[in-house]
Fold:
Amino acid sequence: MAFALEKKAVAGWLERLLKLGEVIAPTRSPTGDVLFSNIRSGSDVAWDLPNPLHPPKEFVLPQTDPLVQIKGNGQHHEVEAIHDSRRRFLVNARSCDVKGIAFLSRMHEMEPADASYLRRSNNLTIISVACPTPCPSGFCICTDSGPFLNDSYDAQLTDLGESYLVEVGSAKGEAAVAEGQGLFRRASDDEVSQRKRLEETAKRHFGDETCHFGAAMRRISTGRVPDALWEKMSDWCLECGGCNVICPTCYCFSVKDLARDGAWVRCRLRDSCQYAAFTLEASGHNPRPEKKDRMKRRFFHKVSAQYYTRDGAVGCVGCGRCVQVCLGATHMPAVVAAIRKGSWHE
Amino acid sequence: MNDVFLPDLARLTDLCDETPDTRTFRLHFRDSSKGKGFRFLPGQFIELSVFGYGEAPFCIASSPTRPDALETTVRRTGQLTDALHKLGDGDEVGVRGPFGNGFDVAAAEGKDLLFIAGGIGLPPLRSLIWNVLDERSRFGRVTILYGARTPADLVYKRELEEWRTRSDVEFHVTVDSAQPGWTGPVGVVPTLFKKVELHPETSLAYVCGPPIMIKIVVQDLVAIGFKEEAIISTLERMMQCGIGKCNHCAIGHRYVCRDGPVFNYGQIKELVD
Structure:
């Protein structure tokens, strides 16, 4: 079911959503960075901002995720699970990030399901905006995660000039649209076909040189990437972990007890498989001691057929954030291309 | 939907020093129904919390045939184990689990069983050994070969003596370097092979110890004629969640915490990182 919403009515709709929960959208911080953060009024959404460098996974899988409250000491403790049941609306998210959260949700739904994650994701309604043109480093067309979506969204907006076409993709999306009663009208056939034309045009904007996973997947899955190539590529990796931090599908974590107000809070902290300490055991033994071992691991997890079979998708949504942050240019498209060609630049 | 990271509270009792840096702890769930419901297989592990320090994986060192004495044996190696060793009788820890696949006890029925352990590799096998000895008639010959760096590094010394004197167990122990008073053999674990009669065609071999020991022992077992599927080991990796989500223990697309930690040699060979 598709609806239309006049742009001038959007702020009013968001005002109504703000009464139900938090509304999160890309905003420009005082220091100039674009971040997903809470808005205070329906007119606060700056629709033309670029996609934030940090994906919105923070709202389902925070960098520091409090799991268990621990009180007491010595011979008597009390432990209690911490629940975050806040209702949230994520507005003006891009297609890639919607697919990123869908990927994370599949991971955390796998048995045994992770209640902490699912409580947040079940209470999150995603109102995304389809991309009429590719972003500078994006390659979502190669990962089936944009520029327009045909699944995974709760509601998807398409900019038609004076109005948005609003597609509803879930019960949560339906509920959000229902809150805007009187603001939405049924979309005309013309508006629906306009959306289709915009999607075709957006796809044509992608160049030929994007990210061709096929050959890389075959070689990674069968161990046919020469060790020397991993070594050459990993020479350029600075082990900063930035790729993991900004990746919409990265979810590796560690569990630590953090002191808070005289008690302990057991937290899940997002971790990086590119750090040497990620696999370091207390004995001093490290199964992945070399940078090349860790880089190989990262790309096996993201691109191998073994994981593709398990997860139903590559662990990449083509957002291009790793292209932006990687100082050594060992980002997804570069590594995939190097594996395909069998060589890395000197 | 469970809060998968919420630990159960358990009290430590019967602390027993095995070596200068290794101690066995008995765990009693504060909620006794948790204790009764805690069913496990030999080879499975728990995530044990020392509050304020986090949690770490430790194998269950006791046998499921003795459900009232849930035990784990821990060497003091890092921050968390150091903190654990500072806890005393009656202090509380957190427990999640049991996790992992564990040893397939039913598949061992009627077989001759060869246990080969090095140093701190004995605790996971001890769980299976006592399971086997408590149900002795279900199994064929039982042979236990154990080695440590020095006599002081041998764990479960009283039980080793019991195994040595039992007529239904063949037991040999060796040390890499002797100390005054040691009258037993000196040499690495594989040197014990010449002391025992092996029956590869009817046996399962369980191997646990430091990586280098496992490597050498497995090579020897293959040379002796053991099939890859008959050589069974339990792998160690850094494990944070125990449920195949945190990715620390992944080898390829397999997870030591969930698909293991028990693998046969054929499976281990296929684990490609």
Observations:
- The mean pLDDT of chain A is 95.
- Chain A touches chain B through 53 residues (CB under 8 Å).
- The longest helix of chain A spans residues 189-204.
